[in-house]
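Intended use. Records such as the Maleylacetoacetate isomerase entry shown here are meant for training and evaluating sequence-to-structure methods. They are not intended to support clinical decisions.
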Amino acid sequence: PILYSYFRSSCSWRVRIALALKGISYDLVPVNLIKDGGQQFSAEFKALNPMQQVPALKIDGITLSQSLAIINYLEETHPNPRLLPQDPKKRAQVRMIADHIASGIQPLQNLGVLKQMGEKKMEWAQNCIASGFQALEQILQHTAGRYCVGDEVSMADLCLVPQVANAERFKVDMGPYPTITRINKALLELEAFKISHPSRQPDTPAELRA
């Protein structure tokens, strides 16, 4: 498999965690979203992913984009360890939380949107994340065990950790979100989350390396 990734992309990080958890080795091709006006806009990358976003994964003779679609494919082709619970209610809760982050928070504060916001980008990002986290904190108070849904790592957790990293980067006050903070801390102790961390990628700038 070949993963097209950017060290700081939270969507790429989700997929890196899934690959690490499932023990799938891969080659990484960095796509720098800032350099050269954004390498994702090159004709070569547009041919790979017409949405001009990372991640993209070449695997089993196909090219997939969209992090949750990629994670679902990995789940179906490499079922262990599972990232979706067997219980239908818990499975629905995992998907709900993953979608809440992947559709309801992250796209509102991603690079393309922030470019449009000009000088207000920090304030905009903080507001988008805070309103999403207020809802997420409430949801997690009903679903969480050690992790987002019960005591097993799931696709919801793969979305949570990168989003908390975004919140910290945009200086969001995490005080009002004790459940999110607690789960994030527990997940960051796991090896798959450590090795996939933005500070430990081949394309991480020297000053940001762990």
